[in-house]
Amino acid sequence: MPRPLLTLRRFPDASVSSEILRGDIDSIAAIGGGGVTVVPHYIFGLPIDGIEPPTDWAMYGYGTPAFNNIFREILKVGQENKVQIDSGLGASQGQGIPAPVESIGLAVQLLAGNVTLQPGESFEGHVPPPSELPQEVSEGEAYQHAMESFGNPNLAATIAVQIVNSAMDGPEPVYYIDEDTIVDLSDQVEEGQLSLTAPDSESEWRLLTFWEGYTNQRSIKGGINATNFLGNGSWVVDHFSKAGAQLMTNFVDEYVLNDSEVRDLVKSLKSKGFEDSIEILSSMWWTPGFLDRFERAKGYSLVRYLPLIFVAHNQFRQSHSTYHEEYIYGPYSAQNISLYNLDYLDVLTSCYGEYLQALTDWSRGVGMEYSAQTAYNIPVDMSASIPHVDLPQTETLAFLDVVDKYKEFTGPAHVANAKIISTELGATMVTYTQMLSSLIWQAKRSWAAGVNDIVIHGAQYSGDYVDTTWPGFQGLFLIATENWGPLQPAWQHFSDITDFFGRNNMVLQQGISKVDLAFYLHKPTFIQGQENYGMSQLLEKGYTHEYLGPSNFDLPLAEVSDNTLAPEGPGYKALVLYDQTGISSAAASRLLSYAKSGLPIFFVGQPPQNAISAVETEQIKVSELMDEVLSIKLDNVHQLDTFQDLLNALEDQEIEPRVKLDCPNNNVYTVWRSDADSSNEYVYIYNDDSQSVSCSFTFRSILTKPTTYILNAWTGETTLLLNSTKEETSTLTTTLKMAANETTLLAFTEQRISPPAVQVSNNVYFTKVIVEGSDIRLSAAFSQPGEVATEDSVISHNSSVAPPTALEEWDLTISAWHGPSPDDEDAMQVRTHVTEYHFDSTQLLRWSELNASLAHSSGIGTYRTNFTCPQSLGSLADGGRPGAFLSLPPIEHTLRGSINGQPLPAFDSIQPLADLTPHLRCGGNDDNTNELAVIISTPLLNAVKHELSTAIFIGMTLEMIDERYHDLDWMPHGLLGPVEIKWVIWKEATVASIPRISRATSVSTKLRISKKRITLCTFMAAVSIMMPW
User: Fold this and answer.
1) Nearest CA-CA partner of 406 in 515, 274, 512, 314
2) What is the mean pLDDT of the segment spanning 231-250?
3) Alpha-carbon gap, residue 621 to 627, rounded angstroms
4) In what order do the strands lie in the sheet with 810-818?
5) What Pfam families does UniProt report for this protein, alphabetically (predicted)?
6) What are the pLDDT digits (tens) for 373-384?
7) In a domain, 632, yes or no
8) Looking at the structure, do residues 427 and 500 belong to the same domain, yes or no?
9) Helical (H) or strand (E) element with 549
10) Residue pair 93/40 in contact by the 8 Å Cβ criterion
């Protein structure tokens, strides 16, 4: 089962105990984690001035012998536990490595300087040096290392421009330039000296210089009194050249994968090299030789247009221009981006692609794969970058849980034939605040967009560290969630979450993702969390969609056959271009080819008739090609005015969604996976709404006579779908009721088992259909008189069952987790202390209402109560079996339950309901009492907040590290009602038999986990269906 990985982002340094680290990974494996991604953050690399490394990183830093010993141990324990061990290539987030300063392959940037000349004014002397960078550019944000000032940049170009006008754009001035007056003076500069006189014009001139120099930005601080480059910290590598990748991989070869044992372990574990979100600084993104490369690619020199690239759109987080001023001249796109800048970004994207491809090729060469959060935070085309890595990864922090934004990522990944698309979820601001209900919600939204692998941010080293007390090592300085591990109360229940994640991952990794519509989208730079169009009208009808960029049309899968785009991949039924005004000539050529091949193409609003380049020949080609596309007389090419016109046209052309919806809202997502090898198909359904919903679903399967199963990702149970109508071959309609934020998994198999149509009266509490041997068995739980009828049989109950029993009185033990007192012997150790509070016969209240001091507590609450079966229940059985369900309110964090000492299956966090019948005591007066236990856990926020002034990390109190905690509200904790026992009478009947040829046989599946863990987490069914449970 593809379990979620945890990012071991809290890896301190190589001074830590290998035994504790081994125990931490054992613990991750025990709760069902699929492995860890080792990201040697070293406390974010300690970018904070005045704070020295707590240990000697010259001795314990990345690539040192001590680090290699720890890394080897991590790989060994991964092999022992049969879990995956991935690793950042390079220190911190995989963005830098130890190297001598100014090594070829370290990151470089383009700097700019200028001087103003009045008309007729002369200039003679050294050309203007680079201007001082604003603090936000040179130092970045709190977690980033500042660029250090040493070394001499090299002059790359010199130009003179005439300022014809100026204005203010908010706080920044904007200068308008007469493009015809630009003069390239680069050849006139000798040894940095220049002599010129500004023309006698009506407005002032600027002499602009551009300099290429190293960014000198570290990803990790150096050690104490370092004597060689290995102990001098790590430097960010050039992300826009093969040289940057080679500098990194050469280091990893020589200093990390430097013996046969480590290399063999990496191969056997099928490890991935990894780069996290790109959080590096630059005055402007550059690489040596960029001007020459640009001219070869575009056919003109970029020198005259260099002022146009120093804009906010190109900066980190796009919040400000480099020098707080911008220049405007030449042609612009409909999105108000200079066409010359678009050419710069296009070439920059190709440079970044070479960097990624070099890392991917190296990874494959050493028996690994390569994964990266591609294009994250840098101004390159994400859709063009994704195909260069084996396993592309998104992150909830940047995509802001926007499903439509994720589809910009999953579309290119699917067409690039990426089998696994992961997301790192859980990074939200302020450690110890995360509720697991929010983590589950993030996963559900990710899956709804086509993501099929989960990486959890992140895992914590649980051992002692220098000058550190409980709650332990803080790899991200409390900036972001979460420190998952044994120091968290929820950890003992975490397998419920990993099982749920793993089962959903498993379904969504079967076969190939199938998507109804592809939307063309040109987006030259990464923009956080921005939704492109309001897709509610498409969702309402059931259409699924993804986005493809211009370069994705050139991928091998992006061919048209049988009027379908990428039939061996997503199988898009149509291509939509919605108010996309710009396109490349290569993409326009592919559009023409697609049109002639019969692919339905819909232009909505303004079609793309403008080149996304300043190259004149490119505009000519685009105009010619698009004129041909738009004038072609083909029934499959449509020009429309509005989105409603698109919906009408799709209906007129009989382009139907694979899952047709009839819902009262437009927030239901579906994801379709088709596995031709096993003749199985799967559908993930998610109600992304705050209200419950009842929808009619019509599924159009490729199977001839599909049999449909419901897969419970929380418990692993598999049951046949009730009340589905097969309207025609391969088409099935059913109604599903879904609670707010609930998910459902369906599987279609070619077993040709046909459960009979079932009519269920309103008073039936619960029904399910399972396969036992050659029989199809129907079970119904009655709480009132009612019946379940098939064509040939009726299951009925004729009397009212006992009313629900409200469980209002409980014995409660609260285990409050906290750190040691300052005078305890273990005060300077990472140890959890527990104080217990006992409450007998108490109501279900917030803990703070039971004891005011518990308002500041975190930990575990154990609730126990007894209940008896109603005296009348047995007499009302009427040939059935007495039973009961436990109903609980939605789960905020974690919850486990047991009945008479027997553990209950995992609870769905949205609708917590458990069938107590298998272990229920209803045998009479002497055997009629049942013992129920419910255990909940909480986040650690309250306990940490309460100890801000005493808890210490590397010698500083948590209060000194992060003052935000004072402004946070205390979290209310405690199990609240209603908690009820719903009494039922179970009745069963055989309602059909399976023809001998259709009886399922056991099918082995390839699962990369141990047999022990398969037993814990596979889907359980009374029939061994041909699915990977």
Assistant:
1) 515
2) 96
3) 10
4) 833-842, 810-818, 859-868, 929-937, 894-899, 902-903
5) Glyco_hydro_106 (PF17132)
6) 999 999 999 999
7) yes
8) yes
9) none
10) no
